[in-house]
TrEMBL record:
Domain of life according to the entry: Bacteria
UniProt xrefs under InterPro entries: AhpD-like
The protein's name in its UniProt record: Alkyl hydroperoxide reductase AhpD
């Protein structure tokens, strides 16, 4: 149960038609998740700024979307945020990963294929710790596997976005959207 009220989907669509359309299109599942509907109801500026950050870091850039979804899900997994873990696990599946592949990666990032995926997840693993130790070697590992400096900073931005949203979701005490669970169960 949410600690705060969540705006009903129809009310959100009526009150924020342009934002509704954009979130549905950018996330690709045809609905606005609880996190944005809750924030819109209790703190509209936070909802709008949070969406802009998610849109810029998750939905734009050079890195493949499914890698970013997996990265977001991994950060949530590490931080034990059930809401974001399930949401971005479902979005990773929607964008091309299989359920088995996601679980295998999280259980053993050392054997990730392609290797660049393992390097990105190792970076996220380091970045979720209270003290980010030796980011230089993590950047070098990603660059040695072909990521540009710009793309390595894009990974950093994605991890930072995920950490921010994990804190918001946990702080709001949100229930997981049933539609995310449906995506995972259909896999």
């Amino acid at each position: 149960m949410s600690l705060f009220a969540i705006m009903p989907p129809v009310e959100f669509e009526q009150q924020y038609p342009q934002l509704h359309t954009e979130v549905c299109e950018k996330l690709g599942l045809g609905f606005v998740p609880n996190i944005f509907r809750c924030m819109a109801l209790v703190n509209e500026p936070l909802a709008l700024s949070s969406w802009q950050m998610v849109k810029q870091n998750l939905c734009a850039g050079n890195l493949p979307r499914m890698v970013k979804e997996l990265l977001f899900s991994f950060v949530a997994y590490k931080r034990r945020c059930q809401y974001c873990y399930i949401a971005h696990h479902a979005l990773a599946i929607h964008h091309g990963f299989s359920e088995g592949h996601v679980k295998a990666l999280f259980d053993d990032i050392e054997s990730a294929e392609p290797p660049i995926l393992g390097a990105v997840l190792k970076f996220a693993d380091l970045a979720t710790e209270p003290h980010f130790v030796d980011p230089d070697s993590a950047y070098k590992d990603m660059q040695a596997l072909g990521l540009s400096q710009s793309e390595t900073v894009e990974v950093l931005g994605m991890v930072s976005c995920a950490l921010y949203m994990v804190n918001i979701a946990d702080g709001l005490g949100l229930p997981v959207d049933e539609r995310f669970i449906t995506v995972i169960n259909q896999e």
